Sequence to fold (503 residues):
Amino acid sequence: MTNLTYDEIPYESLAYADTHPNKLATLATLFGLTPPAVKTSRILELGCGDGTNLIAIAQTLPQAQCWGVDASIKQIQAGQNQAKQLGLFNINFTQLHLSEIDESLGIFDYIVAHGLYSWITPALQDTLLRLCQQLLAPQGIVYISYNVYPGWHMENVVRDLMRYHTQQLPQVPFEISMKQAKGIINFIAHLRQQGNTAFDLLLQEKMQLFKIATDNYLYHDFLELDNHPVYFHQFIQNATQHQLAYVTDIEFRHYLMLSFPDQVVEALEELFQGDFFRQEQYLDFFYNRTLRRSLLCHQTVPVQRNLHWENITQCYIANASQPVNSNFFQTRAGETITVKQPLTQLAMAYLAAHYPRSLPFEELFQYAYQQHSTTEPNLPTLRANFAQELLHLYCLEAIEFHIELPAFVTTLNSYPTASPLARYMVSQGQQPVINLRCEFIYLDEVATALLPHLNGQKDKSTLLIVLKNLVKQRKIKLAPQEDIKLVLEKTLFELLQNALLMA
Ligand SMILES: C[S@@+](CC[C@H](N)C(=O)[O-])C[C@H]1O[C@@H](n2cnc3c(N)ncnc32)[C@H](O)[C@@H]1O
Fold:
């Protein structure tokens, strides 16, 4: 198969919650930086595809200025059309090749390049890093995702086989090439289905992936010419040459080695020799990592390599974990975690009961302190211990930190307003929809029918009439014993919990 462009085979872009500048600024703050205010920031997405991710971000930050750039005119036009339909005035899409971009675009507080670095030539990877350096505000943050070795050595076996196999074929239509490319993997996976080597497991995993992934996605991951993974140390070397410094990765939990026994940590530390970058690279080998999502800043900005509890005192805190009892909580991922201190237990219980509401650190501390009649005379020690445990819980992915208040509301307005993007997606028959956290959410039948009516013009009594009409018109079905008023309350509550309602 000849190499096909993104105009010929567009990439179905998604929304990536972890690229939201609020997330980037929060992580940067935890590592001792003072990133620019998110609300009024200038945001650039390079290789933005059809703009889905940037549109999801733009609707949560009406005072920010978002700029999406991509080489594919077809995808840029899709983004422009959607922004127009949504009436978003804080977003601009421009068709540009990376090599055509210059400082005329201005300076940006946050630069996002998701799924771009690995899919361009090494020369263009340099261009990308040079642009990030040139266009980044002094305290700004860059997000770059990229495929890494050693994990991609295994992935490349699958990719090489799919590419080799399709190269043996005569020129055939795209769909047939894709069928053949998936077919060769499925064929070998079936022949080896009794096996349990790492390769067998990889083949099984790919068979599952082929069932759900679109051909366009699979083409760009496994068949297109440019897919250039690098080792982390190579990426850092390249970033350093462009005067960019590493801050952290989006996922850093496993790299803190919190769950390793002390003697294992000691043995590993001998390998690391106190060198942070050596440690990260060894742990990439340890985890056979395939993907990194790294944050960078200017080299002139100091980065704290160790997390300090003082930095979390600037954050809002939310807790999506559920209490099992007063000192055990179950995270969203199903992991049970222990909360040791009584003050933290009180705070966690309060936040869990009010999720997704987040409280500023000081308010949360005051709440817990007043609830708990402690005899500890040393308030600063109590506060430091409280912050330290919250930081530990954040590292375990049990709680959320936000440096700025997220865009969704946590109490119901008299005239509820749903996210315009989600309303638009429902009107186009799309499921799942994107919420104000930039996550994908499946809506049930009632929520799907109700969402387009949540335009800030209808109060609850009007919405009740809307719901009754929808039942009459058989657009939604309720069980005979169901109280329609309760159904409305429950649906609005679920939309609120799912971050779909805004001020
Ligand atoms: C794998 S897709 C990722 C799209 C999107 N960022 C996402 O993650 O869903 C890579 C995108 O980068 C764009 N791209 C590739 N090379 C480029 C270049 N040299 N200049 C600008 N955009 C480029 C493609 O058009 C495509 O939309």
Observations:
- The mean pLDDT is 95.
- The CA atoms of residues 248 and 295 lie 5 Å apart.
- The first helix runs from residue 21 to 30.
